[in-house]
Design goal:
- The protein is an alpha/beta fold.
- It has 13 helices and 14 strands.
- Strand 5, helix 5 and strand 6 form a beta-alpha-beta unit.
- The longest helix has 18 residues.
- The radius of gyration is 22 Å and the shape is globular.
- The structure holds ligand T4K.
- Ligand T4K binds next to helix 3 and helix 4.
Length: 407
């Protein structure tokens, strides 16, 4: 798409035309090789085998195992159901520690099964759980910890494993963001009892909708496979409580197509991340999150932290400016799970013990990336942010005006 700045002097927030004629989304899906995908779809049609552990799903699982260096991949219809099934397979109950700073699905997967998510605060340096703060949240009802590798950055796997072992807790990871990432040279996927990937359309590797539980535990993998398919063991024989968590063949075909492009996508994402880094350098109060260059990263998330003590505009003001320009920056994971239903009703006292979550959730914004953008678009977005900072006082005045005729 050709970006357009018809009137570079006037920001859209002042009534000028938006910088981009079409919205730029965070989470625009990457397509991969369209012809290869369509060939796979044709093959699926010819085979008339659409779901239920078909050959394309099996191929996808084998490729995920190989990529993530794990013994088992059990593909599912999405990561939320995969989390629910993993939580049930590990027999979690009572209370489970989980970060408040995550997508709502992590908490819902527990609450859906009447398990209480006990919200823990984050480490501002990593945006992940702060393991040293967890012990005080444990009660006799605590049965597990769900760590989340937020933005694909590893969530203290060793410290959490030590804590889990010490208190005989089950440990699993929500690795929805972390496919293709590593920790101390080991791919994410092999930590804890199991880990859960998301292959939602907005993710680095996408299967339209999709997810997977990965594990090195043979017994757990068998159980997950049963639970994913109603508990069926062969024809007419149900040996376990299960649900329908199956991935379809078409979804697996998209997953394979996406996997074929994985290395190219990482290169694209990395290039754009570097373009944002140089385009936003030296802006007061603005920092772009750091990915350890010694590890493998998918660079899927361009995450800015806006410190409103130093920046001339706060996060929400900047988001308003960007949306007016058709740059649909997102405020993940504002306001934190504890402030969304049903948790804000069930746990109204959670906020005071989550000061870092509260602070970070008010500061973060995500910017668009992926194969639909080029570095020149990133340069334009960075230029908009710079101009917004230069014109901060006028922007604040404009935003403070009540909406009405002429505004
Ligand atoms: N755990 C964590 C830590 C997660 O972040 C997630 C999901 C999960 C678990 C659960 O995984 P899944 O059950 O979804 O597999 C989006 C995604 O829907 C969600 O998958 C993701 N995390 C979350 C961080 O972001 P929304 O509600 O913000 O999505 P939505 O529909 O606004 O999509 C974002 C933007 O992407 C849209 O503005 C437009 C663009 N888009 C989206 C889709 C679906 C497209 O251009 N094309 C598309 O097909 O949650």
């Amino acid at each position: 798409m050709a970006p357009l700045i018809p009137n570079p002097g006037s920001l859209a927030v002042f009534g000028g035309p938006p910088a981009f004629p079409q919205p730029l989304h965070v989470g625009r899906p990457n397509l991969g090789d369209r012809a290869a995908m369509l060939q796979r779809v044709n093959d699926i049609f010819d085979r008339r085998w659409f779901t239920n552990d078909g050959p394309v799903v099996r191929e996808f699982e084998a490729r995920i195992q190989e990529f993530a260096g794990v013994r088992h991949c059990v593909a599912m219809c999405n990561a939320t159901v995969a989390l629910e099934i993993a939580i049930r397979a590990l027999e979690l109950h009572g209370e489970v520690i989980v970060p408040a700073y995550t997508f709502i699905a992590t908490a819902h997967a527990l609450q859906w099964q009447e398990i209480t998510p006990v919200f823990a605060d984050l480490d501002p340096a990593t945006h992940n759980l702060a393991p040293e703060t967890l012990e005080r949240l444990l009660t006799p009802r605590t049965t597990g910890i769900v760590g989340v590798h937020v933005w694909g950055r590893p969530c203290a796997p060793e410290a959490l494993a030590d804590l889990a072992a010490k208190h005989r807790l089950k440990l699993l990871f929500d690795a929805a963001h972390a496919f293709g990432c590593s920790h101390r040279g080991r791919m994410i996927g092999g930590f804890g009892a199991c880990e859960v990937f998301s292959f939602h359309a907005t993710k680095f590797i996408n299967s339209f909708e999709g997810g997977a539980v990965v594990t090195n535990d043979d017994g757990l993998a068998d159980k997950l496979r049963l639970m994913r398919n109603f508990g069926f063991k062969g024809f007419d024989n149900v040996i376990y409580l299960g649900t329908n968590g199956k991935m379809t063949e078409i979804c697996a075909a998209m997953g394979l197509t996406s996997l074929d492009a994985a290395h190219d996508l990482i290169a694209i994402n990395r290039r754009l991340y570097e373009a944002y880094r140089s385009g936003l350098a030296n802006l007061p109060g603005v920092s772009l999150i750091h990915y350890d260059p010694g590890e493998r990263n998918n660079y899927q998330y361009v995450v800015l932290e806006i410190d409103d003590r130093l920046a001339p505009l706060n996060r929400d003001e900047l988001v308003t400016v960007l949306h007016a320009e058709n740059v649909l920056a997102r405020k993940y994971f504002w306001p934190g799970c504890h402030r969304l239903e049903p948790y804000r009703s069930l746990q109204p006292d959670a906020a005071p013990r989550l000061p870092e979550t509260e602070r970070l959730a008010a500061r973060i914004l995500l910017l668009p990336t992926g194969e639909t953008l080029g570095p020149e678009t990133v340069a334009l977005i960075c230029g908009l942010i710079r101009r917004a900072f230069e014109q901060a006082a006028a922007i604040r005045q404009t935003l403070a005006r009540p909406p009405g005729p002429g505004n």
